[in-house]
Design goal:
The protein is built from six helices and eight strands, in the order E-H-E-H-E-H-E-H-E-E-E-H-E-H. It has 154 residues and is of the alpha/beta class. The chain has one domain. Bound molecules: iron/sulfur cluster (SF4). InterPro entries: 2-thiour_desulf.
């Protein structure tokens, strides 16, 4: 079993109310191999919603209380992001997932690179909050650019 960002499989849960359709990922859901999650919705955020970025660090720093998540209006959304990450890890454990394929660059789901907190489309190194908590709990986290080799072995 694998967790999958719902916005990669046609669910309109993105901050702007949109989504993507990755047919290979939708096939995983149809085959019963993937569970859809949206950490930001699981954390209680509405859709659509103002975009958020991590300010002052990455997801790991947020989990340590050393950085925060704000929306583009400067409103603190850290608690929603941490709650969404915790719910996602709970789902992963409940359903025996070993890995997750999550949307790149997102402040929740990004892996390796996320937006830098300036709301100017610039990237910094680091993971989103959910990715950081999944990795801390031993889960493999991939994104839409590097999942194929992994699913071929499933
Ligand atoms: Fe939800 Fe993650 Fe997609 Fe954002 S990137 S809409 S948190 S699944």
């Amino acid at each position: 079993m694998i967790l999958l960002s719902a916005c990669l499989a046609g669910v309109d849960c993105r901050y702007d109310g949109g989504s993507r359709l990755e047919q290979e990922l939708i096939d995983l859901v149809k085959q019963g191999k993937a569970i859809l999650v949206c950490p930001e919705q699981l954390g209680g955020m509405t859709t659509p919603r103002p975009p958020c970025e991590i300010i002052g660090g990455d997801g790991e720093a947020v989990l340590k209380g050393q950085a925060k998540v704000s929306n583009c209006h400067g409103e603190d959304r850290t608690a929603c992001f941490v709650k969404g990450a915790e719910e996602t890890v709970k789902i992963a454990k409940l359903y025996g997932a070993k890995a997750a394929i999550l949307k790149a660059k997102s402040p929740s789901c990004g892996s390796g690179h996320i937006y830098d907190g300036t709301f100017s489309q610039k990237l910094q190194d680091g993971d989103g909050v959910t990715t950081a908590l999944l990795k801390k709990n031993g889960f493999v986290v991939l994104d839409e650019s590097n999942f194929r080799e992994y699913i071929e072995k499933m």
